[in-house]
Amino acid sequence: MTVNHGKAQYRTLRLILGDQLNPGHHWLDQIDPGVLYVIAELHQEATYVKHHVQKLCAFFAAMEEFAFALCSRGHDVLYLQLEETLRYDNLAELIGSICLEHNISRFEFQSPDEYRLRHQLRNLELDKAISVHECGSDHFLLPEAEFAQYLVAGKHNRLESFYRKMRMRLGLLMDGNRPLGGKWNYDDENRHRLRPDDLAEIPAPLVFDNNVESILGRIDGCDIEHFGEPVTSLLWPVNRAQALELLEYFCQHCLPRFGQFQDAMTCRHEYRWSLYHSRLSFALNSKMLHPMEAIDAAIARFETADGRISIAQIEGFVRQIIGWREYVRAVYWLNMPEYAELNYLHAGRDLPVYFWDGATRMNCMQHALGQSLEHAYAHHIQRLMIIGNFCLLAGVDPAQVDAWYLGVYIDAIEWVEMPNTRGMSQFADGGLIATKPYSAGGNYINRMSDYCKHCDYDVRQKSNDSACPFNSLYWAFMIRHREQLAANPRIGVIYRSWDRQGPKTQEATLSRADWCLQHLEDL
């Protein structure tokens, strides 16, 4: 499918990838009839991991919408659907063919945010008559050239230090040289669980009705392997107007209690999958929405809310974007490609089959996995402290965990997924991100959710046949890695607690853990 305005003689080909849908990119400031933009649904991008079908549909729909948006602004665009790109073995072959067809003399691309794509495009072998030029994506808040001023490669760098530097750099939520409200971080005020009275106030999520039936048809017609719940009506934003609408909805309806319940989980509400979360990550990571747009809109709402939005709520939202999002990107690029091979804890078990169907007796995992498979989405605590925690305790191969997270979540692109998964969640980087493993038994899950009240397993037990698997797996994990972790000052008290338990209690707990590890598929 070609979306263009005429039969111009093109001299420049510009590639736009599926996560580069930035309407404010400097390329687009002027109309140049000698420039042809190419946006392509690529087999290699649909298959480098097995993807959730809604993720495939969302990216293809957003790419197609962006192509039409560029055309409406007067740009010439070549949009290629899957059927049209299947005959090319890879992206390089496709680019070479288009350059030859249109007698292109200059090829331009924006720096990809995934290592494999950046390596691929920087090593293109095009005709020698074609000059190749790379530019930035005009999206992130900290330029790559300045990463080394904020973080050190190969070492642990405190997120809090990075975050404060970014706050001062951007002048956000500041009172002169001091943080607004007197504190940099209000995370300790944002760890509430949902009480019964809170459930009635959860807002209905804003969802969209994007028909992706034709996209589903070409995904299946091209034999693209996928998983997850297929839908013909996609609820995620696939164009800029929808992204802005979702941002406005979040600021009005969710921001007032965003931080308060950002770690909470429930299985007793129809909106349990959305709660107060912004769900803007797909719009941000595909670049339909600029991070400063989200921050500015949220701060504007905070400043005009007459005290109805506390500093803790807005600070938590700003920290997720200028702190965590920018931080993990810097960690990724400073440590790649070696980062992708790290396995500090030597984990090697296979991912259980219920990661693909959600059929497990563990209620917390059933809900977190089921939600992920149904919506291609779970919020950060479900990803970290339910699914990620289970993989950590069970010793699942971090490469398999990476591939599942990268495939299942609609917002997952390697630069943001890998540090969150291999680093924060699985501690496979040995502490480059986290100061200790984010491991926990059933007590944490019970404290932050109502999952345990409706589970076949007993969260109060560690060693009998009905005991919550998280409990015994937690202690087995801590003992298994005691030599690596005991010197950590944040963990010493845990080992002292274990040592105070009697030998029979310890033996029974570890015996239950052994059974769970041998029967992971049956839990």
Topology summary:
Elements: E1 2-3, E2 12-15, E3 35-40, H1 43-47, E4 51-52, H2 53-72, E5 76-80, H3 82-85, H4 91-101, E6 106-110, H5 115-122, E7 131-135, H6 147-150, H7 159-170, E8 174-175, E9 178-179, H8 196-199, E10 210-211, H9 213-221, E11 226-227, E12 233-234, H10 240-254, H11 281-285, H12 291-303, H13 311-335, H14 363-375, H15 380-394, H16 398-408, H17 414-425, H18 442-448, H19 469-480, H20 482-485, H21 492-499, H22 503-518
Parallel strand pairs: 2-3, 2-6, 3-5, 4-11, 6-7
Antiparallel strand pairs: 1-5, 8-9, 10-12
Helix pairs in contact: 7-13, 10-12, 12-13, 13-17, 14-15, 15-17, 15-19, 16-17, 19-22
Mean pLDDT: 94
Compute the separation of the termini in Å. Answer: 48 Å
Strand order, biggest sheet? 1-5-3-2-6-7
Q: Tell me the helix content.
A: 40-55%
CATH fold name of the largest domain: DNA Cyclobutane Dipyrimidine Photolyase, subunit A, domain 3
Content-based structural category: alpha/beta
Radius of gyration in whole Å, from Cα? Answer: 24 Å
**Main sheet specs:** 6 strands, mixed
Number of helices: 22
CATH class of the largest domain: Mainly Alpha
CATH homologous superfamily placement of the largest domain: DNA Cyclobutane Dipyrimidine Photolyase, subunit A, domain 3
Low-confidence blocks of residues: none
Q: What's the CATH architecture name of the largest domain?
A: Orthogonal Bundle
Domain module tally: 3
Number of strands: 12
Beta strand %: 5-15%
Estimate the global geometry from the Cα principal axes.
Answer: globular
